Please model this.
Amino acid sequence: MVITVEPGLYFGAWRPDVEIDQRWAGIGIRIEDDVLITDAEPDVLSSFCPKNPDELEAIIGTG
Model:
């Protein structure tokens, strides 16, 4: 069986109870992992994917 673990952080104007700088309004990030569940240890299939901000910026550039 394969499961997906998808923690996310989203900044939106729909949360009037949370004050944020407007430059962050309407953006979000989700870091996803696909995990193969076996009788042994779980195998994180997406472990090779970059998740560190420096690694990601090297691939996609900076804003």
Observations:
- The chain has a mean pLDDT of 85.
- The first strand starts at residue 2 and ends at 5.
- The beta strands are 2-5, 8-11, 27-30, 33-36, 43-44.
- Residues 2-60 form one domain.
